[in-house]
Design a protein that fits this description.
The protein contains three helices and ten strands. The protein is α+β, with helices and mostly antiparallel strands and 164 residues long.
Length: 164
Amino acid sequence: MNIPAVKPLMVGMGDFIVTTDPGCVLTTCAIGSCVAVAAHDPEAGVGGILHFVLPNSQLNPSMARIQPRMFGDTGLKDFLWELSSKGAQTDRLSLRIAGAAVVVRDLSCHDIGAVNAQTARRILEDRGFAIQAEDTGGEEIRTLTLEMATGRVTVKSRSKTRDL
């Protein structure tokens, strides 16, 4: 059996990476109130991670023009388009989300994490996608990893590590 060499890639906040390289292991860190979306189509061999910070590009239109991946609405649109352009299909795509934590208590009256998670769920559902699993809410910052060779998604926080 030919096992591909592991190529770690970091996905930054407000960005995404989509790849067809089975040797890639994608990771995004510091997922607080942000939401990370991991997607994998095993048949097409395509997958990726989006790490968005804010739910709606209308919150800051000038920033959205410069960095659309920072926002759930524009970032998910671009992320899904990129996955599709590399061969992913809606009915085969495995989607998992993580994040949406309350990380600043003083702002808990406006729970941006919950709004981010709702945005991801709504946009994905509206486009015909099902979320297979999620690890959202709470107060812990997370790290999410996608192994392209297997489609395995792992979420780590201070208190736990689990497959998603």
